[in-house]
């Protein structure tokens, strides 16, 4: 614990960086989404290339799957980098459809469980909220994308505040602890 207490300022810098990132994400949500899509594109390209190399080095059984997966990853990376708007919209649409499908299944499960468990209505309400969320995302994708950036920004600010508070707690530990 004494070692971490000596470097309390590193935790403080980490927290301050998170707060700054969060403020920037809230101030420029469109740019935040663009950067995330670019990072995804770069990740998909690197992952796809590594899968291709692995596919050519492995035995016949896994070779085809690795090569196909590598090619698909490379294509996804290229699409993300060439058309970042389409990539972010596609992600949002996938999330919207998933929310609707999972919400409907939760509603159906809640109805079937009515005779077996108490408070099944909570599952039904959760499913209904999921369906509403999915419909809203599909009906208004623009605000949905901005909401994602705002959520990331809010998380970064709260995380940063927690790290800043931790850094001062750790710093106070050094003043109260005896170092041998």
Supply the key terms.
180 residues; single chain; 7 helices; mainly alpha; 0% strand
Notes on the protein architecture:
The protein is mainly alpha-helical and 180 residues long. The chain has one domain (8-173). Helix content is 90%, strand content 0%. The protein is extended. The protein starts with a helix and ends with a helix.
Question: SSE layout and pairings?
Answer:
Elements: H1 2-6, H2 8-27, H3 29-57, H4 60-82, H5 84-112, H6 120-139, H7 141-176
Helix pairs in contact: 2-3, 2-7, 3-4, 3-5, 3-7, 4-5, 5-6, 5-7, 6-7
User: Cα distance, first to last residue?
Assistant: 13 Å
Number of helices: 7
Please give the domain count.
Answer: 1
Radius of gyration: 23 Å
Note the main sheet: none
What is the string of SSEs from the N terminus onward? HHHHHHH
Oligomer: single chain
Number of strands: 0
Helical fraction equals over 70%
Briefly summarize what is shown.
By secondary structure, the protein is mostly helical. The protein is built from 7 helices and no strands.
């Amino acid at each position: 614990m004494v070692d971490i207490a000596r470097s309390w300022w590193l935790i403080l810098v980490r927290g301050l960086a998170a707060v700054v990132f969060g403020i920037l994400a809230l101030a420029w949500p469109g740019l935040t989404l663009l950067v995330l899509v670019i990072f995804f594109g770069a990740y998909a390209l690197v992952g796809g290339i590594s899968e291709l190399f692995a596919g050519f080095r492995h035995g016949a059984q896994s070779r085809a799957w690795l090569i196909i997966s590598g090619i698909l990853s490379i294509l996804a990376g290229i699409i993300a980098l060439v058309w970042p708007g389409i990539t972010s919209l596609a992600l949002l649409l996938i999330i919207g459809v998933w929310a609707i499908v999972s919400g409907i299944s939760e509603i159906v499960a809640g109805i079937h469980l009515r005779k077996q468990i108490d408070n099944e209505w909570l599952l039904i309400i959760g499913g209904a909220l999921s369906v509403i969320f999915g419909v809203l995302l599909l009906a208004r994708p623009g605000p949905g994308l901005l909401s994602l950036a705002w959520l990331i920004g809010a998380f970064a600010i709260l995380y940063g505040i927690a790290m800043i508070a931790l850094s001062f707690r750790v710093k106070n530990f050094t003043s109260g602890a005896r170092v041998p």
